[in-house]
Amino acid sequence: MRILAVADEESKYLYDYYHPGKLSGFDLIIGCGDLSEDYLEFLVTLADCPLVYIHGNHDENHKRVPSGCICIDDKLVEIGGLRIVGLGGSRKYREGKYMYTEQQMQNRIRRLWFRIKWHKGFDILVTHAPARHLNDLETVPHRGFECFNTLLNKYHPKLFVHGHVHRTYNHNIPQRTDHNGTLVINACGYCVIEI
Question: What H or E segment, with its residue span, contains residue 37?
Fold first, then answer.
C-alpha cells in the first residue's frame, strides 16, 4: 500500500506546484492535523483515494468538515484491510478544543479499548502529537504522550504517523525512525510511505 502522510504545513510541492498525475498512485492519504479544510479537499479530490484525518491543536477554528474526507478522531476504522486508530490533539499548554492532559488522552484511549480488542489490535496509529521521547521536545507544547508508548508497546502496529513537531524546530528530528518494529513517521509537510 502506498500512503501519503501530511501534517502541519501545506506543501507547496503538492499544492502550489501541482501538475496532473502528481497525486496519482496513492492508496490512502493520512492527515495528522493542523491543515486547512481546502487543502485536505484538494488532496482527496486529485488523489482519488480515501483520506483520513485527525485534528491538530490549531484546528479549533475549522468551520466545516472537509468534503470527501473521513475524520478518525477517537475511532478505529478499517480501510484497505488496515485497522487505523486516530487520536488528534496535543498536550495541553493553554485552553483549547484539541488539547489534552496525559490523563485525558489516557481516557480517550480507554474508550477505544473494546474496539481495539474486538479488532485484535490495529495496524496504524495516527496522532497529531508524538509519543514521549519519540520525536518530541522538552517544551510543554511539544512534549509527547507517554500513553502512546503504551499503545505502541502493547500492539506493535506496523506504522505510527504523527505531526506537530516541525522538523525545522531541531535538525536532529528524523522523518522516519523505528520503535521496536514500528515504523514511526513525522509527517510534517509530507511523507510518502510504502507498507
Answer: helix 37-47
